Write a sequence for this structure.
């Protein structure tokens, strides 16, 4: 079973929107994380420069004297103090100042700027500076845990609005799709409420552009159905009218036969009845032929048909009928293939009708000649016979 258009559109649009929002979320997260990294690095560098300036002044006032902050973090301090450290050294490498939370970071006077170190399974970001005049150096360190925690906060604060918006988005998409498909529902209701005899075209007012080709195709089909029903009604009326006369004649001959009292009248009446039956049979065949042609009149005539092959097939079908009446039937043409524009069944019906009339109304030992001529003006089919012809009346 093919899934509904509404469900497919809903799934597709929601998936596309979630994908778009996810891409925006990733871009915002990456950009925000990068800016946070830049901000923290700038803060490290600025703190290092300020503290180095103070340490240089202190170094000038004191000789190699070690000052160490060893007091633990007080309760009134901030929880992040344990994740930030400062180490100041004299020119000879002795520690002038060190925070109690400072890890054992590698020390070298050759490395300046930003570095990453891993101490006790904890990653630290450091910034180092050295004063060329006094040789005093400083390392300001910050644990990556601070940055990761902030990144997690960014993810949470950014994702939560998206997660809250997705159900609202799904509802809006559902309502929008329902509103967009409403014309199809109206069309279905209009078609279902129609009477079977109502073949009027469907109105194309307030129909979306995408549905218009479907409506036009349905209207074309309705027009064809209307034409087919009209042909059937016309055929029924014509058949009743045309059959009334030969049937009345047969009835009259049968009544004469009932009153016949000698063999001559009897035989003559029987012959008349048989001729009447033949005429009625021929009339029925003619009416059926007209009905078949009416049923195929809507077929486009852009088909290539070999007129010679169709004519030869018809002659073959009527060969025995011509032999029974000792009628010579022949095909005269200079071509072995005569392609023409037309539907083969309709051309066959037309030629069969002409040949049937020619054989039927031509006396015994007569001739029916079918000729196909091709010239610059086109292709011409002629059927001639040695019959009495059609009365001018």
């Amino acid at each position: 079973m093919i899934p509904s258009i509404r469900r497919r559109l809903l799934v597709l649009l929601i998936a596309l929107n979630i994908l778009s929002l996810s891409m925006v979320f990733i871009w915002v997260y990456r950009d925000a994380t990068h800016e946070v990294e830049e901000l923290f690095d700038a803060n490290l560098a600025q703190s290092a420069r300020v503290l180095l300036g103070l340490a240089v002044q202190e170094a000038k006032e004191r000789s190699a004297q070690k000052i160490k902050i060893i007091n633990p973090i007080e309760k009134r301090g901030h929880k992040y103090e344990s994740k930030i450290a400062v180490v100041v050294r004299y020119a000879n490498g002795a520690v002038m100042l060190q925070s109690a939370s400072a890890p054992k970071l590698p020390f070298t006077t050759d490395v300046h700027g930003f570095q990453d170190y891993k101490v006790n399974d904890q990653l630290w970001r450091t910034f180092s500076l050295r004063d060329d005049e006094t040789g005093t150096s400083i390392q300001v360190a910050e644990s990556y845990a601070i940055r990761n925690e902030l990144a997690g906060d960014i993810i949470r604060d950014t994702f939560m609005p998206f997660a809250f918006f997705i159900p609202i988005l799904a509802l809006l998409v559902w309502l929008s799709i329902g509103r967009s498909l409403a014309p199809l529902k109206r069309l279905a209701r209009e078609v279902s409420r129609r009477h079977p005899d109502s073949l009027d075209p469907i109105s194309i007012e307030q129909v979306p552009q995408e549905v218009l080709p479907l409506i036009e195709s349905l209207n074309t089909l309705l027009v064809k159905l209307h034409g087919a029903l009209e042909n059937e009604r016309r055929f029924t009326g014509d058949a009743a009218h045309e059959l009334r006369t030969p049937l009345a004649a047969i009835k009259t001959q049968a009544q004469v036969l009932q009153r016949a009292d000698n063999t001559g009248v009897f035989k003559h009446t029987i012959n008349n009845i048989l001729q009447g039956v033949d005429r009625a049979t021929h009339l029925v065949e003619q009416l059926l032929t007209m009905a078949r042609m009416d049923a195929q009149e809507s077929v486009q005539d852009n088909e290539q048909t070999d007129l010679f092959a169709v004519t030869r097939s018809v002659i073959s079908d009527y060969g025995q009928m011509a032999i029974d009446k000792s009628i010579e039937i022949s095909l005269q043409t200079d071509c072995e293939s005569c392609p023409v524009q037309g539907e083969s069944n309709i051309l066959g019906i037309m030629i069969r009708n002409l040949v049937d009339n020619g054989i039927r109304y031509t006396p015994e030992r007569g001739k029916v000649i079918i000729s196909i001529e091709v010239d610059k003006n086109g292709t011409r089919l002629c059927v001639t016979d040695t019959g009495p012809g059609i009365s001018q009346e």
